[in-house]
Design brief:
Blueprint (H helix, E strand, L loop, with lengths): L1 H12 L6 H31 L5 H29 L4 H35 L6 H24 L4 H17 L1 H16 L7 E4 L2 E8 L3 E5 L5 E5 H6 L2 E3 L7 E10 L4 H13 L11 E7 L3 E10 L5 H19 L11 E4 L13
Antiparallel strand pairs: 1-2, 1-5, 2-3, 3-4, 6-8, 6-9, 7-8
Length: 358
C-alpha cells in the first residue's frame, strides 16, 4: 500500500519518524496543493456545465465538492501517519478504505452524470427511468465496496457475493411482473413510439398520454378518465399513434341513404358538406365512396383529414350535421332507422372497426 513505500522511503533517506516541523510542513503542502487542484478542477467543470443544457453543476459539481475536499484531507492524514511511523493497523486500514471509497465515489458519480445524464439524456434524448438508474448504482456500489474492503483487509468476499446472488434470484422471481414492466418501460423510453401529449390507440383503448413511468403509462380518455396501462401490455399490443409522424390524421365517416337517391347528388352533397367545415383540411382533399348497396339503402364513406385527433368527435359531429342539412335540401332521404357508424385511421395504419355511438 501507499504508506508502506512512503514509510520505507523516509526511513532510508531521512530517518523515521520524521520531525514534527517537517511532518507539519509536508502535511500543509499537501493540503494547499490539494486545495489548488480542487479549485482548478471544479472551476473547469463549472465552466463546462454552463455550456451544456443539463444541470451538470447540480448533478456533478455540487455532489463531488465535499467528497473531493475530504479526500485530499485524508491523503494529508495518510502522509502524517506514514511520516510519523504510526503502525496502528486498524487506523491505517480504515484510512485506506475511506480513501479508496472516496475515489470510487467520485469516479462513479462522474461516469453516471456524463453517461446517463449528459450523453444519453442530452445528446441521445434517452431518459433512463429513476428506478433503473438506482438499481444500476446499487449493483455497482455493492461490487465496488465489497471489492475494496476485500482487497484492503484480505477478507474473502466470495461468500457474501454468493449470498447476494441467491437473494437477487429470489427477488427476481418474486418481482417477475414488476421487472417485466420495468424493462418494457425502458424499451419504450429508448424507442419512443409516443410521448406525453400524444393520442394513441393501444389494446382497444384510445387516450392521450399523460405520463410515462417505469412501470406503467397513464392515459386520459375522451371521458376524462385516467387509465393506467402496464408497460408490458403496451410493449406486446398493437400500438397506433395518431400524432405520428405528425398530428394530421384521417377519419372515415359512414352514413346511409335510401336506395332511390342519386349517387352523383349524394357525392356532391358530401363534398359540399366537407367544404363548409373549416376544420377539415383541403389538402389532402376529402374523398367520397359508395361502398355498398342493399335492396333498402346505399352505404357511403366520407374520408377526411383533420389537424388534431383530439378534436375528431366535434369535427365529425359538425360534418354529420352538414350532411343531414344537405340531404334535406336536395330531397335525399336518409335510411330510416340507420345509425351512422364512425371509424378512424392515422397515416397508413389499419382502420379501427366501426362502432355505434354510445
Amino acid at each position: 500500500m501507499s504508506h508502506e513505500w512512503l514509510t520505507a522511503f523516509w526511513a532510508k533517506h531521512i530517518g523515521m519518524p520524521a520531525s514534527w516541523p517537517f511532518v507539519l510542513g509536508v502535511v500543509t503542502s499537501i493540503i494547499v496543493l490539494g486545495e489548488l487542484t480542487y479549485r482548478f478542477v471544479f472551476s473547469a467543470l463549472h465552466r463546462f456545465s454552463q455550456r451544456t443544457q443539463t444541470q451538470l453543476d447540480d448533478l456533478l459539481v455540487r455532489r463531488m465538492r465535499l467528497p473531493a475536499r475530504v479526500l485530499h484531507l485524508f491523503i494529508a492524514f495518510h502522509a502524517f501517519l506514514a511520516l510519523r511511523g504510526i503502525e496502528n493497523e486498524v487506523v491505517r486500514t480504515a484510512v485506506s478504505i475511506v480513501e479508496l471509497l472516496l475515489v470510487a465515489y467520485l469516479i462513479i458519480e462522474a461516469l453516471e452524470t456524463f453517461v446517463l445524464h449528459y450523453w444519453l439524456g442530452e445528446r441521445k434524448g434517452i431518459e433512463v427511468p429513476e428506478v433503473v438508474r438506482h438499481l444500476l448504482l446499487l449493483v455497482v456500489y455493492t461490487v465496488v465496496v465489497l471489492s475494496i474492503v476485500g482487497s484492503v483487509t484480505g477478507i474473502n468476499v466470495i461468500p457474501v457475493l454468493a449470498t447476494s446472488t441467491v437473494v437477487t434470484v429470489v427477488l427476481g422471481l418474486a418481482l417477475q411482473d414488476t421487472l417485466g414492466n420495468l424493462f418494457a418501460g425502458l424499451a419504450l423510453h429508448v424507442e419512443k413510439p409516443f410521448g406525453p401529449g400524444d393520442w394513441i390507440l393501444v389494446d382497444g383503448l384510445e387516450g392521450q398520454v399523460v405520463s410515462m413511468g417505469w412501470r406503467s403509462t397513464h392515459l386520459r380518455t375522451f371521458s376524462w378518465d385516467v387509465v393506467v396501462v402496464p408497460n408490458s401490455i403496451i410493449a406486446k399490443a398493437r400500438l397506433q399513434n395518431f400524432y405520428a409522424p405528425d398530428k394530421v390524421c384521417a377519419r372515415n365517416v359512414e352514413f346511409l341513404v335510401r336506395l332511390d337517391a342519386s349517387p352523383e347528388v349524394v357525392e356532391r352533397v358530401a363534398r359540399q358538406a366537407c367544404e363548409s367545415r373549416a376544420e377539415i383540411r383541403k389538402e389532402p382533399a376529402p374523398k367520397v365512396w359508395l361502398v355498398g348497396m342493399t335492396p333498402l339503402f346505399q352505404r357511403y364513406v366520407v374520408k377526411i383529414w383533420i389537424d388534431d385527433f383530439g378534436r375528431h368527435d366535434d369535427i365529425e359531429s359538425d360534418l354529420l350535421k352538414a350532411l343531414f342539412r344537405g340531404c334535406q335540401t336536395e330531397g335525399i332521404a336518409l335510411r330510416e332507422g340507420a345509425v351512422p357508424a364512425l371509424s378512424a385511421e392515422a397515416g397508413s395504419t389499419a382502420i379501427v372497426p366501426a362502432v355505434r355511438p354510445r
